[in-house]
Amino acid sequence: MTGSTLLVLPVGLPWALAVALALLNGRRPWVGWLAVAGLGASLVSVVMLTFRVLREGPVETVTGGWPAGVGIVLRADVLGATFAAVSVGVILVSLVYEVFVGVRSRTFPALVLFLAAGLSGLFLTGDVFNFYVFFEVSMTAAYILTGYREQDYQVRGAFIFAVVNLLGSVIFLIAIAALYHVTGTLEMATVAERVREVNPNSLITIATAIFVAFSLKLGLFPFHFWLPVVYVGSHAPVAAILSGALANIGNYGLLRFGGDILSEELALGATAVLVLGSASIIYGALQAISRREPSEVLAYSTIGQVGYVLVALGIGGTVGFSAALIYAVVNSLNKALLFLVAGLRGPFVAAAFAVGAFSLMGVPPAVGFIGKIAVFKAGLAAGGVIQATLLVALIFLGSALSFVYALQIYQRAFLAKEPQGGLWDKTSPWTARALVVALAALVLAMGLWPEPLLVLGEEAATNLIESGGSP
Fold first, then answer.
1. Of 363, 344, 266, 262, which Cα lies nearest the Cα of 310?
2. Average pLDDT score, the chain
3. pLDDT tens, 16-30?
4. Which of 111, 299, 312, 431 could disulfide-link 228, Cβ–Cβ 3.0 to 4.6 Å?
5. Does residue 471 carry a pLDDT above 60?
6. pLDDT tens sequence across 242-300
7. What is the dihedral of CA 132, 136, 139, 143, to 10 degrees?
């Protein structure tokens, strides 16, 4: 396949299939499996695209044969292709899980496909405004999915999610308008060149607005207030999609805009980024320890885990950006596995949860160990002995706290004689249990063979520094 075809397929295929399936009853198994097949083909195409950009460099095309600036510009580099592959993979696993346990809404398969198309377009666009458009497509589908099964608490969570993220969208749109005002363009590569000639005071304000918008999406401290309510109320596969795929909007956005487009502003605000990342790690872990329900613990854990990405981003440079990407990928897999396992009972489920918990703590041979080592190396590379010592101590403290709340979940959910609600009497479908065991095996396999992930992290960081001029 040509590079242009590989760029269009991850966005166009799920989009077209979503339009078709929106007219059908998604509760029928064959509709769900058709959605799975389409999403599987999208994943294959984005994986092929990732290999291509690794070998040959970035790929760019304008859809429909329109001139640049008129048509939708799609551009794939290692950073975007990696996030697209991971996010689509998480969504695919979550969709398969729901098809196994039984889809309860006629719109669920179509909404999942719309979400996948929006995320793929967001990660693979080369235009800031198109980034915003795909951003809104993803978020609109996510709002509806949050209220899936239409229980009262789920609808309340969906409403809170919509209001808070609409606020983030408005802030981001204002920042885009300001960026266009000072640069005269919305094409990412051109923006990155022209910002160097813009008044630094204007750019600092724009960078702050973008940081706040993405922090709201990620649920970083102190922008975390909405996240626990939404994640706790969501159905297991929806929570996996929110934490393992949708949260990558924030991870990718901070790397793309901070490491590439506004790299000098990121360097100026590095101390603030490090402080907020450290606060997220400690606050999220302490709140997780204080909770009893597994879904609550995992929700607050999400706040803490994204703090590591922010710390790596604040350190910057090749080692920092590489660590941020690696940890974001690892965290996506960990959260998808843990949220899916939390909704199951039966043989081998406890073993799958243990693998996810070990990965969360950074215990080898799970892939979480690779993520923690990457951030650890970034901490050692931080300027100054005192700063490096504090960051290394923070990483060890965060891992120790992760061990505490992961062990608490395991004890309450799998070792207690009678878990909450008599769940030992409920055995989940063997197909769903086999799926999470396979995902746990992938987490172990990536820990045993981390070279592909390390290569992706290093290449993405190198590309960011070369294009953004970061130190």
1. 266
2. 85
3. 999 999 888 888 999
4. 299
5. no
6. 888 988 988 898 899 888 888 888 888 888 888 888 998 999 899 889 888 888 888 88
7. 160
What DSSP string runs through 65-104?
A: GPPBTTBPEEEE-HHHHHHHHHHHHHHHHHHHHHHHH---
Question: Which residues, at least 6 apart from 397, have a Cβ–Cβ distance to it below 8 Å?
Answer: 281, 282
Residue 79 to residue 53: CA distance in whole angstroms: 10
Kind and range of the H or E run holding 403: helix 385-410
- Summarised one tens digit per residue, pLDDT across range 360-419 is 888 888 999 998 898 888 888 776 677 778 888 888 888 888 888 888 888 877 776 555
Mean pLDDT is lowest, of 73-87, 157-171, 176-190, for 157-171
The answer to whether 42 touches 89, Cβ cutoff 8 Å, is no
Contact 325, 457 (CB under 8 A): yes
Cα torsion 424, 429, 431, 432 to 10°: value is -60
In our burial notation (b when 16+ CB lie closer than 10 A, e otherwise), range 366-390 reads bbbbbbbbbbbbbbebbeeeeebee
Of residues 165, 172, 318, 370, the one with CA closest to residue 254: 172
Rounded CA Rg of the chain: 21
* Non-local CB neighbours of 96 within 8 Å, separated by 6+ positions: 36, 435
Cβ(187)–Cβ(68) below 8 Å: yes
Cα dist. 383→148, 161, 375, 391 in Å? 47, 38, 14, 11
Instruction: List the one residue out of 415, 284, 426, 406 whose CA is nearest residue 343.
Output: 426
Q: How far is 46 from 40, CA to CA, in rounded Å?
A: 10
Which one, of 306, 310, 314, lies nearest residue 332 by Cα? 306
The single-letter DSSP state of residue 220 is -
Using pLDDT thresholds of 50, 70 and 90, give the confidence band for residue 64. Answer: low
Contact yes or no for 223/258 (Cβ under 8 A): no
**φ, ψ at 7 (rounded to 5°):** -75, -40
Q: Is 61 helix (H, G, I), strand (E, B) or coil?
A: strand
- DSSP code at position 429: P
Report which secondary-structure segment, H or E, holds 380.
Answer: helix 368-381
* Of 300, 250, 33, 294, residue with least CA distance to 142: 250
Beta bridge mates, 75: 60
Looking at residue 440, what is its pLDDT?
94
Residue 221 DSSP SS3:
coil
End-to-end CA distance of the chain: 37
130 within 8 A of 73, measured Cβ to Cβ: yes
Question: Cβ of 39: how many Cβ atoms within 10 Å?
Answer: 28
